[in-house]
Target: SDR family oxidoreductase
Amino acid sequence: MTEKIALITGANKGLGYETAAQLGRRGVTVLVGARSAERGEKAAASLCDEGIDASHVPLDVTDEDSVAAAARRVESAHGRLDILVNNAGIAMGDGDGNTSSLTVATARQVFETNVLGVVSVTNAFLPLIRRSEAGRIVMVSSEVGSIATMLRTDTPEPIPALQPGAYGASKSALNALTVSYAKEFRDSSIKVNAVTPGYTATDINGHQGWRTVEQGAAVLVEMALIGPDGPTGAFRHDGTIEFLDSDGAVPW
Ligand SMILES: NC(=O)c1ccc[n+]([C@@H]2O[C@H](COP(=O)([O-])OP(=O)(O)OC[C@H]3O[C@@H](n4cnc5c(N)ncnc54)[C@H](OP(=O)(O)O)[C@@H]3O)[C@@H](O)[C@H]2O)c1
Model:
């Protein structure tokens, strides 16, 4: 197997786009998962302009027909998938932002994308990932999904007062799914890990994050490219988030 093939969901902008760019620069063929044809084609064209082997795969993670069509498209074009980065995500709240103001409709939308979308995409692509010599699945979680971190009072602002809400709960659920998949595949060559990019300046937070997309995407890329001795069932950061362990471990 000469080159790796990676699908990144929500790769038309933000951390997903940067991950596609960093993987592409390392010689990986990148499939730009994006729900908007216009945004997806534009992102793929911009990566191609850099000399990266990139193409758009239409993919709305909340639409099972779209997910199934994407898997068929990748199967007919490439026959397998080596790397899946479950990156697409949304963050929403209601009213004053307190959890007591959260509507079920909002919570459902967040879980549909951040949790059920991951199950849908992962399970649809697993037959293709099983055909890889060394499949890698990266779950893009958050320290907001780390219950241990959310209970700390000694972290930098805005974390101490931050309520995890639907977003944090969805990422905690994603962490649980990561462990579940990792246990299922522990006797295979497939590795499944959760990562947090740290608080990164993107549209999801109105560019309030204190890290750049280049910094944030680094751990997504690192976990996408781990070798046979790399971890599975782990929750990692890039080792530079100062209130987390410098060895890269994030508490669950
Ligand atoms: N930025 C941070 O501080 C931070 C910290 C921890 C974790 N994360 C996680 O990192 C991931 C990427 O977020 P980001 O910061 O790069 O935010 P972003 O710039 O808002 O990008 C989110 C991406 O997800 C896509 N998306 C949303 N719903 C989708 C759907 N139903 N189907 C397909 N794609 C969908 C968006 O596509 P459209 O353009 O079509 O909306 C966009 O490409 C998320 O999972 C987020 O939770 C971010």
